[in-house]
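Dear U.,

For the methods section draft, I wanted the exact inputs and outputs in one place so we can describe them consistently. I've listed the two proteins in the order they'll appear in the manuscript figures. Please don't edit the token lines directly; just add comments below if something needs changing.

First protein:
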Amino acid sequence: MGLSLHYKGGIDPGQIAPLCEELRDIAGSVGWNFIDVDDDEKGLRGIILQPSSDMESVPFLFDARGRVHALCDLILGWQEGDFLGAAVKTQFVGCPEHIWLCGLLRHIQRTYMPELTVTDEGGFWETGDAQELQHRMDLLDRMINEFGSALESASMDTVLDPNNPDAIADFVQRIAEHFRKSKE
């Protein structure tokens, strides 16, 4: 759970190398690490940016047709027809880094990937409203903390049947329903 940026689209395959070169330079200038990717077995190439903060890695992985892929496609493989796109959770790094990543994606859209589509759960990509982004992050932080407290305070010993493989899922669902009702 947490606020993320999702992006999908394609790039002219001839532009992948110049994009990766620029992203290497950007990563170096902001103190991020990166991993170059050229995986023939998975059919993906590109770069994975590794922020120095707690932000998730930022993948720019492309297949031979130039379509964006998620990090899991590099790890697990992919097949034609799979959902194509990537996401980066920014919930736990705060507004400035979320806004910075939006700026990077906008630059990539303008320079390399005009068809890049971004979905911003914080709303900043669409509106440029940093206050709304902060509001959404704060709201999710509160919900995550309150739900975590509800799970911690619940007594699992009295509600779990060790012979029921769905017992934990049922337990979490009951806590979630109780939590949701308490917020109404």
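Second protein (the one for the lower panel):
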Amino acid sequence: MQWRSRPVRPVNDKAVNDKAVARRIRRSARILLTDGSERLLLFRYAPQNRPPFWCAPGGECDPGEDFATAARRELFEETGLDTDPGPEIARRADDYVTLEGEPITSDERFYRVWVAAFDVDTSGQTELERRMQMEPRWFTFAEVREWHEPIFPDTILDLVALDTTGETA
């Protein structure tokens, strides 16, 4: 398993930058869901207060919830797929401001799930996910490399290249 971390990005919110900010640790799980056509499922977020961006299914762990359980729950809520996420393949940390405006330090764990073919069912999305107009799309790896909107993390194809032991396949 590899620990991946990016340099801390500066927060572009003047009110946040003008004072010291105590950041809580936000524990979350992300699922790299690929299909038999070697495509990766990503969701487009379109918040009103920032430009649209894409990321893999997943989200914050509930209180007392471990990362693998959160991965399975988030995968089901966001896609309708109920399956074991398998072993953790990577970890990542970063500082950023959440969609709700909270400055946090993330502790993200990544899981890899393969499906032969799959129609995404978004009926289990949360209120926040619906408000952010989350839109699923299957991407080829070439499309991810060339996509015109930000995809987070920017190392997502490196993560997809890891096998379930955390080593490059």
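Candidate sentences for the figure legend, describing the second protein: The chain has five helices and nine strands. The domain at 20-160 is CATH 3.90.79.10 (Nucleoside Triphosphate Pyrophosphohydrolase).

Thanks,
Y.
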